[in-house]
Specification:
With 188 residues, this protein is mostly helical. The protein has one domain (9-155). The chain contains 6 helices and no strands. The longest helix is centred in the N-terminal third of the chain and has 24 residues, at 29-52.
Length: 188
């Protein structure tokens, strides 16, 4: 999808510091903790910007009230019964944003990173498919692209859209590199 004039890097999902996949060793705990902090900072910044109608996001084409509402729902760490029912009825493996602890408050930071990357892959899968429906879609393609402005990194070229790992062009497709995140959300 073509990127709009939006250029607030702090509101774009951060790239992992190294490749994350089946063949790679997990990130060192300190590296995973730092990356997790970046992700949590991103989530909080996006939620605050969208909720407040921050001028930094006004240039995003098709960021309609419906798209803003859906983005905020996706970023929540808890869902009400209606949202849980909506997600369960979808085929996208959508979940609330993983409730992760700040690094240093216990838990394995690499596990938390993988949970967030799985959440993100499911959201990407949803955004690339939900607009292409028979009848009236719950979001239009432009609205999905607007939400995607926040879910994608500022620079995605050469990276798998699901796991965010960098690959040469011949291995960029999720099937070509056995994408850890794409396979978890059913991408084929």
């Amino acid at each position: 999808m073509k990127r709009s004039r939006f250029n607030a890097d702090a509101l774009c999902f951060p790239l992992p510091p190294a490749r994350i996949g089946r063949a790679e060793a997990p990130l060192l705990p300190a590296v995973a903790a730092t990356y997790l902090s970046e992700i949590l900072r991103w989530r909080n910044a996006v939620a605050a910007a969208v909720a407040a109608g921050d001028p930094a996001i006004t240039t995003i084409e098709n960021l309609t009230p419906r798209a803003r509402s859906r983005l905020l729902a996706l970023l929540r760490t808890e869902w009400d019964a209606k949202t849980r029912s909506w997600a369960a009825a979808s085929d996208y493996d959508l979940t609330p944003f993983p409730l992760t602890r700040e690094p240093g408050q216990g838990g394995d930071p690499m596990t938390a990173v993988l949970e967030v990357l799985h959440w993100r892959a499911a959201v990407i899968y949803y955004l690339t498919d939900v607009w292409d429906a028979m009848g009236k879609p719950e979001l239009e393609m432009g609205e999905c692209a607007a939400i995607g402005e926040f879910i994608r990194p500022a620079r995605l070229e050469g990276c798998c859209v699901y796991c965010l790992s960098e690959f040469k062009a011949d291995r960029l497709d999720p099937d070509a590199h056995g994408c850890l995140m794409g396979s978890r959300v059913g991408v084929r």
